[in-house]
Amino acid sequence: MNEDSAVDVLVMGAGAVGCYIGGSLAAAGVRVGFVGRPRVIGALDSRGLTLTNIEGIHHHVPPGLIRVYEQVPSGVRPALVLLTVKSGATADAAAELAAQLPAGTAVLSLQNGISNAEVAAKAAPRLNVLPAMVPYNIAELGPGAFHRGTVGRLAAKDDPVLRRWVAVFERAGVPIDLHVDLVPVQWGKLLMNLNNPVNALSGLPLRDELLQRGYRRCLAALMDEALDALGQAGIQPAQLAAVPAHKLPGILRLPTPLFRLVAARMLRIDAKARSSMADDLALGRRTEIDALCGEVVRLARKHGGEAPLNAKMVELLEAWPERKERWPAARLVSELGL
C-alpha cells in the first residue's frame, strides 16, 4: 500500500476546526492526515497536536501518529474527508480533492454558512459532498494547541456512509447527529454565528463581549433581520440554544444583570474562547463575513426584502484591514443606527 494511502480521514484545511476534530479522531486511534498552510503543518509535524476543552479533557497526539501535507498527496484514499477550509477557499479546495481522490469519496463540509457544500459539490461533482455543522467555538492557543471553549454536538445530513462513522465520532469525543433535513440546523447555527463579526470588531474574548449590552444589542438587531428573512423564506431555524431562536433577540437586549441570570447557559464559555473571525482579523486574513451576514442579505433580497444592518457588517469587516481599530460597543451601536 502506498504510504500516503494509509489514511482513514483526510482533513482538508488544518485550521482550528480541522485540527480539533481531526485531532480528536486521531487520539481515538483513527489514521488522520492533515492538509494545510505551512505555518500550521510545520507545528503539527514538530509538536503534534494538543487538544483541550471546557470540560477539562486534555489529549496529546504525538507527531508520529499523524501525517501532514501542504497539498493533497497523490494516491491518498481516505474513507472520509473533513472539508474545513475557510469559505472563500471552498471551490479551490474541492477541485484539488477531486483531482486526487476516487469518485464517490465522502467529503463532509464542516464549514460556516449555508452554501459551502453546494459550492464544493459544483467544483467536485464526482465526490459525495455532504453538508454539516459545527456548533462550538475552537481557538488556537499556540502552535499545535487547540481548545474547544463551548459545548455542543456536530450535525450532518444523513447519508449511509456517515452512519458508519457515528460510533467513531462518539468515541472520539466529537459526537455527530444525522438529520434528514440539515437546512434548519444550519440556519440555527448561522443565527448564533452572527455574533462572529460583532466579536471580531470588539477585540474581546467571547464571554467579555457578550457581557456588554451594547454589543448584544448589535447582535440582536442582526438576528432580527435574519429571522425576518427566514420568515419570508418559510424556513424555521432549529433551536440550538436553551430557548427558541425567535426569543434570542429579546434576551440579548436585557440589562446585563438580568441577562446573566436568564442566559446562564449561553454564557457557559471559558475565558479562552474567541471567534475565528477575530483570529482572521488579527492575522490579516480575509474573513468569512460573506458566508454569514452575506447569506442573510442574499436570502432577504431573494424574497423581495433587504437586510441593511447585515449589509453594513459586511462593509465594516471588509474595510477593517485599512483601519485596524477596535470598535467600542457605543460606536458600533451608533454605526448601525440603533
Description:
With 338 residues, this protein is of the alpha/beta class. The chain is 45% helix and 15% strand. The chain has helices at residues 16-27, 38-47, 90-100, 116-123, 160-163, 166-171, 183-193, 195-202, 206-210, 213-233, 248-252, 256-262, 276-282, 289-302, 308-323, 329-335, and strands at 9-12, 32-35, 49-53, 58-61, 66-69, 80-83, 106-109, 128-133, 138-142, 145-148, 154-157, 176-179. The protein has an eight-stranded mixed beta sheet with strand order 5-2-1-6-7-8-11-12, with helices on both faces. A four-stranded mixed beta sheet has the order 4-3-10-9. The longest helix is centred in the middle third of the chain and has 21 residues, at 213-233. The mean pLDDT is 92.
Q: What fraction of the residues are assigned to beta strands by DSSP?
A: 15-25%
Largest beta-sheet characterization = 8 strands, mixed
**By helix and strand content, what is the structural category?**
alpha/beta
List the secondary-structure elements in sequence, H or E.
EHEHEEEEHEHEEEEHHEHHHHHHHHHH
Shape: globular
Summarize the structure.
By secondary structure, the protein is of the alpha/beta class.
Protein topology:
Layout: E1 9-12, H1 16-27, E2 32-35, H2 38-47, E3 49-53, E4 58-61, E5 66-69, E6 80-83, H3 90-100, E7 106-109, H4 116-123, E8 128-133, E9 138-142, E10 145-148, E11 154-157, H5 160-163, H6 166-171, E12 176-179, H7 183-193, H8 195-202, H9 206-210, H10 213-233, H11 248-252, H12 256-262, H13 276-282, H14 289-302, H15 308-323, H16 329-335
Parallel strand pairs: 1-2, 1-6, 2-5, 3-10, 6-7, 7-8, 11-12
Antiparallel strand pairs: 3-4, 8-11, 9-10
